[in-house]
Amino acid sequence: KFIVSLNMIVGGQELSDFGNETVTVSFHFELPDGMDASKIVVWYFDEVTQELEEHSAVYDANTSTIMFETTHFSYWLVGEKVTEDVTEDPTNEVLITFIMVMIVLA
Predict the structure, then answer these.
(1) 3-state secondary structure labels for all residues of the chain
(2) What CA–CA distance (Å, rounded) separates 42 from 29?
(3) What gap in Å lies between CA 56 and CA 69, rounded to an integer?
(4) What's the start-to-end Cα distance of the chain, in Å?
(5) Torsion over CA: 69, 72, 77, 81 (sign)
(6) Per residue in 48-76, pLDDT tens?
């Protein structure tokens, strides 16, 4: 499991908030055995609320890449969307794969 940290450095300054503008993020991702590509989503960790916020993502099996849009860079993770309440059954396991991504622009 890896933590996702999206960063951009422009002119020596870290840029993480794009206001109302969106940025498309894509990166290489090897789909783990048993993970359903059609259920892939991304979450970011909201440092204020201390909660994960879900966003849609697209997995391209031909290029092994994940793509999503965002208005900010922060901590992200990739996993399958859970459609059932796994807290009710302790035998359920949820696969969440973290990816380390750092984007640096010179």
Answers:
(1) CCCEECCCEECCEECCECCCCCEEEEEECCCCCCCCHHHEEEEEEECCCCEEEEEECEEECCCCEEEEEECECCEEEEEECCCCCCCCCCCCCCCEECCCCCCCCC
(2) 12
(3) 8
(4) 29
(5) negative
(6) 888 888 889 999 999 999 999 988 887 78
Task: State the average pLDDT for the chain.
Answer: 75
Question: Which residues are within 8 A (CB) of 74 and not within 5 positions of it... i.e. 6 or more apart?
Answer: 5, 6, 16, 44, 45, 46, 47
* Cross-strand bridge partners of residue 42: 55, 78
Q: Does residue 42 contact residue 78 with C-beta atoms inside 8 Å?
A: yes
- Of residues 3 and 83, more confidence is placed in 83
Instruction: Indicate the pTM of the whole model.
Output: 0.67
Tokens encoding 32: 């783990």
Place of tokens 């894509």: 26
